[in-house]
Specification:
The complex is a heterotetramer, with two copies of chain A (about 375 residues) and two copies of chain B (about 325 residues).
Chain A (H helix, E strand, L loop, with lengths): L1 E12 L17 H26 L13 H10 L5 E3 L5 H6 L4 H8 L23 H15 L6 E6 L6 H12 L4 E7 L2 E2 L2 E2 H4 L15 E6 L3 H16 L5 E6 L18 H8 L3 H11 L5 H23 L7 H5 L7 H17 L8
Helix pairs in contact in A: 1-2, 1-10, 1-11, 2-8, 4-11, 5-6
Chain B lengths: L1 H14 L3 E5 L15 H5 L4 E3 L4 H13 L3 E5 L10 H8 L2 H4 L9 E6 L14 H5 L5 E3 L4 H13 L4 E6 L23 E4 L4 E5 L3 H11 L4 E5 L2 E3 L3 H11 L2 E4 L8 H12 L9 E3 L9 H7 L3 H12 L2
Parallel strand pairs in B: 1-2, 1-3, 3-4, 4-6, 5-6, 8-9, 8-11, 11-12
Antiparallel strand pairs in B: 5-10, 7-9
Helix pairs in contact in B: 1-7, 3-4, 8-12, 9-10
The chains are: A alpha/beta (about 375), B alpha/beta (about 325).
Bound molecules: thiamine diphosphate (2 copies) and magnesium ion (2 copies).
């Protein structure tokens, strides 16, 4: 006897196509809100361009550009409620900024200064996670805490296409499914994991279908369409808070830049591919839409750009005028209270800096 | 010791509703060594949680739970199965306070039985404390007696830093002593002078403290026995003061030797008590091999005789 | 626009139902071969009963019983070719024995003596893996080596239902899918992972469907039906060797005993459940079938049992008459050549045993 | 050093068709530091394999590949991302020979760039050698120069035991020296006396050897500088003999101090050269904190001045 035990499927959602034409059901949002979305996307782009420039000038360190992923970045930020928590990877500067993370602090973080990750108290964002996929379990645990405390709060966690190959992805999603936790898993499938194309990352046809392994829904959305991203995340956040468990959302998007400023994508990626994706730009697309709806004019754009550039410049100034940390800062947060052994090491270092000050060389 | 740990968990869970227990088989089953026995019945499945079989997610989720205001006490079933947790422990639990400049913290406890001597299967007899002790930001606590186990576990649960709490399974049931019903704590970061002495300092922790105590009966010398209790950050002061007094030291551990805790103890003693030392600090340790199965294990783990003999050799140096 | 991107399903296979009635397409095997299968299942059961008895008598240590899982154990062994490699977990004593692993060595392994895992040269079995799921990557790597060397050899790897929750499962299956490796993944879903019922291990309806996440086929088979197990594994081994990639086979079976001899299932498991599964016993079932086909008589059974018991008793004798290892054995296999530091430790230990011999106590 | 490593890989791959390279971005991209540059073009995608992003499977599959007769040289992209490999390394790679009584072995190399000093992101500047060195059955090799890098990597690839080969990324391109085109090996398990001296022994490895060399110019004493080269199993003989001659020792490392390699060196010296020691063995190490970002990193990693100063203090003890 051979019989079918179960049938599964995975869907795709697009609302705004690359020409700015509405192909699906628009979410219920005001024009005001759409303009805010547009503004945040533009802010993200300007921040990104500035960061790239600062990096080239040696004013910040290695930086991971979000260019091309603004819809996936910003759509989510708008779909979350104030009380929800964001667990970013390292390619969500846009989301973080839209959720209130200071741009100057982000620059500080990318600018070799850990004090940039001192997330402000009123900002519900966890520290950027550099080890791929490791943040997933944190989001799951946070959601679990909320569920145990009967608070209506969702965790939203970001990761890339490469991240889906790691054990942490699997264990985290399985926990979330098993305990029906209020988590939204957002995979920014930007088609590349450094030099690895999506097709070589996994033989699964979509990443969204990986949710089938955990008994909850997965969906692929046009990740360059902010309305699709917004709708899918909004639904998932709602579902999460209503106790109906987690969702995996694959945002099908594209990494327009190199992996980071340390990378050179020309080594492994066909330039033609980038040109193709350029046409699907998430900002251009929304602009098309807004133009049709008479929500966009050249003046609006100019004023917006001017305002945003000022803000970003201001953030750069704040970052660059931050006084250096003191030596104690290296030791201060290792434990809640500094243990004697560590205090001795601190004292030693202070002494050592002193003793060697006049010897010439690189330190101090 | 199992009972003492069980009581500590019960008392802290009763007192603080944010304390939860999670791990494999910690619920209905009460843990494979019964340390969490009865908790599920008492506190229910929301606070005593059986998880899927995934150690990395257990510790990773515990980090998130801690962020969300819970105080997770999570369990690895055995020493060998704490290893899949290393990445989350090193990359995150130990660093979150540091990385977020104090904004976030991993207020959690990871507890697991460790060490040999119970005739167990492979990967069930390891002593991995050095991996944890080498990781800044973690606290590593190892009790040697039921009394300490209870008091240290309570301290660990209340400690705002991530604590790796290793339970010497060999003495889980082997050492019996009356433990006060009432609440008490044993402080983290303080070594315990088990017995004062003037000829030689004997430093150990965990199950080996028992062998050290037994060795005292086999040696004619006046031995000062120190139980580290907290492996990291270590109470070097107590150790150094003792060696300054005795001028001699033996460090006893079950774990393999290379880059181990005993190396740290010896390195510290020779540095801080150099002028008092009448003989080199001697390390009595496991060997740099896998700990063998039960038939040969007795050769691997130092017994009281080997310890007594080494004391004698150091005295006669 | 919302559209369906992909559709998936997962099948179930049964050939011999619990009454010994053929409900599907019998594999093409001779009666001779069926009798061999039966014999191996009986041997596995006798070995298991003996091991449990030895454990109770303190003659071996902690032991993981395979009772109830004989069809899953033995079906696979018959579906593999001589050149294929088996990567067991710790609940495949039956498979190992059927593939030529000496019973005496197995007893030695469970009997606190690592020398039992010195797999004989002509036996294609890797060492038992105690850390759950870790063997999966080894099987994947081995299959990969075979593929690179263009050898027609498959890896067959066993693990439990609990094992599917671990990251190693995910990473291993994803590698196998991505590189289309000749591996057969056999999940013995015996419904329990120590005290965790299958339903709490994952929200996915079946374990077989987890293969969808890796882009290859998963199938659930009646794991107490040796013909279904044989058929599925045989097909998968063939497919693997033809370069058509991996397969995940979920053997739906049951752990009749405690998890191990250190466990007490009464603490968490309903006795009624065990009684229900007793009716589905894989050996009884095949016996029903053979009786119908006139391949089984009481005499046959008696003679078989007698022969197998003798063999097992002989294995016990071999095990128990093995001389103890020498001290050097602790050090010998840490490296290919013993480094000076280790040799010193060995010499020290020898000296120490000598020095303390006459002090009384526990050692030596 | 990058080039020297690249040549070593090319030569060994050309010589032995069972040698393969696998890891994240090691193929077309040539590795994020270009250590595997050109290999993919030369040996093709079957021998230079880009894997999915999964470190544990990279090492786990390498174990299987080794069983199947290949000699995998696998890469972790950075120090911090070698941590997910710890379980497979400790539980399996290091033990398979032992567990199978010599029947199976993990003939493989795990190489990765490690350490600070390149102004990198978080988790990209760690020095985790102690975790590996504490694990019996692993060999841990760290070159300090291009010449050594080439010769040691060749030895590692040929070594039948699992070798963790850590590459000090700070000197990847900073140290330039001519490396013979011809094939040669530098033996594993032997320390290198970089400079002979009579006043004091300076022990180090990896990138810190450069700082030690620079310190020589800042100190008036006759320093014997030893580069360990192999961290485990360690060549203690060379170190001990040196200290027996000089009577003084300083150990320099970048890693955090607690239970580190420097502890092992110090503990061994005080034990084996006790009567020769005129001063305690001094450890100059990273601190027991996370290594800070670039702006503060210079305080964390000892520079030549700090080393010279410590030499002076030990001399004046
Ligand atoms: C555990 C781990 N391994 C390796 C790396 C190095 N690394 C950084 S990003 C990256 C690729 C990530 O790809 P993906 O998940 O698709 O995210 P993307 O960078 O495309 O946003 C790699 C391999 C890392 N950060 N963490
Ligand atoms: C990594 C790891 N964690 C925990 C354990 C302890 N343990 C041994 S078997 C087991 C349950 C395994 O369940 P399953 O995979 O279903 O296999 P089964 O025992 O049912 O055959 C556990 C938790 C282990 N061996 N390895
Ligand atoms: Mg990507
Ligand atoms: Mg099971």
């Amino acid at each position: 006897m051979r019989k079918t035990l179960g049938k599964f499927s995975v869907d795709y959602l697009q609302i705004l196509d690359e020409h700015g034409v509405v192909t699906g059901v628009m979410p219920k949002i005001t024009n005001e809100r759409i303009r805010e979305m547009y503004e945040q996307m533009v802010r993200a782009r300007v921040f990104d361009e500035t960061a790239l420039k600062l990096q080239r000038e040696g004013r910040i360190g290695t930086y991971a550009s979000i260019r091309g992923q603004e819809a996936s970045n910003i759509g989510t930020a708008f779909a979350m409620d104030k009380e929800d928590w964001l667990f970013p990877s390292f390619r969500e500067d846009g989301t973080m900024i839209a959720r209130g993370f200071p741009m100057s602090a982000l620059l500080q973080y990318w600018g070799w200064d850990e004090r940039g990750m001192a997330v402000p108290q009123d900002v519900n964002i966890f520290t950027i996670a550099v080890p791929v996929s490791t943040q997933i379990a944190h989001a799951v645990g946070y959601a679990w805490a909320m569920k145990l405390q009967k608070k209506k709060v969702a965790s939203v966690v970001y990761f890339g296409d490469g991240a889906t190959s790691k054990g942490d992805f699997h264990e985290g999603l399985n926990f979330a499914g098993t305990f029906a936790l209020p988590v939204v898993f957002i995979c920014q499938n930007n088609q590349w994991s450094i030099s690895m194309p999506r097709s070589k990352q996994s033989a699964s046809e979509t990443l969204a279908q990986k949710a089938i392994a955990y008994g909850f829904e997965g969906i692929q959305v046009d990740g360059n369409d902010i309305f699709a991203v917004y709708t899918a995340v909004r639904d998932a956040v709602k579902k999460a808070k209503e106790g109906r468990g987690p969702t995996l959302i694959e945002c099908f998007t594209y990494r327009m830049s190199d992996h980071t400023t340390s990378d050179d994508a020309k080594k492994y990626r066909d330039a033609a591919e980038v040109v193709e994706w350029e046409k699907k730009d998430p900002i251009t697309r929304l602009r098309f839409y807004m133009k049709q709806k008479k929500m966009w004019t050249e003046t609006y754009e100019r004023e917006l750009l001017e305002r945003v550039r000022k803000e970003v410049d201001e953030a750069v100034r704040t970052y660059e005028s931050t006084p250096p940390a003191d030596i104690e800062d290296i030791f201060r947060y290792t434990y809640a209270e500094m243990p004697p052994a560590l205090r001795e090491q601190l004292e030693y270092l202070k002494r050592s800096v002193d003793e060697t000050k006049n010897m010439g060389g690189t330190n101090g | 010791m199992v009972e003492a740990l069980n009581i500590a968990l019960k008392q802290e869970m009763a007192k603080d509703s944010s304390v939860i227990v999670l791990g494999e088989d910690v619920g209905k089953d009460g843990g494979v060594f019964r340390v969490t026995d009865g908790l599920w019945e008492k506190f229910g499945g929301e606070r005593v949680i059986d998880t899927p079989l995934a150690e990395s997610a257990i510790i990773g989720a515990s980090i998130g739970l801690a962020l969300g205001g819970m105080k997770p006490v999570c369990e690895a079933q055995f020493d060998g199965f704490s290893l899949p947790m290393l990445d989350q422990l090193i990359s995150h639990a130990s660093r979150i306070r540091w990385r977020s400049r104090g904004r976030f913290a991993a207020h959690l406890v990871l507890r697991f039985p460790y060490g040999g001597g119970i005739r167990a299967l492979e990967h069930h007899s390891d002593s991995p404390e050095a991996y944890y002790a080498h990781t800044p930001g973690l606290k590593v606590v190892i009790p040697s007696s039921p009394y300490d186990a209870k008091g240290l576990l309570v301290s660990a649960i209340r400690d705002p830093d991530p604590v790796v709490f290793m339970e010497p399974k060999r003495v889980y049931r082997a050492i019996r002593e009356d433990v006060p019903e009432t609440e008490y704590t044993v402080p983290i970061g303080k070594a315990n002078v088990v017995q004062e002495g003037s000829d030689i300092t004997l430093v150990s922790w965990g199950a080996m403290v028992r062998e050290c105590k037994e060795a005292l009966a086999l040696t004619p010398y006046s031995v000062e026995l120190i139980d580290l209790r907290t492996i990291s950050p270590m109470d070097t002061k107590t150790v150094i003061e003792s060696v300054k007094k005795t001028g001699r030291a033996v460090v006893v551990q079950e774990a393999p030797r290379n880059c181990s805790v005993s190396a740290e103890v010896a390195a510290t003693i020779q540095k801080e008590a150099f002028l008092s030392l009448k003989a080199p600090v001697k390390r009595v340790t496991g060997f740099d091999t896998v700990i063998p199965f039960a038939r040969m294990e007795g050769f691997y783990i130092a017994d009281e005789k080997r310890i007594a003999k080494e004391i004698e050799k150091v005295m006669k140096f």
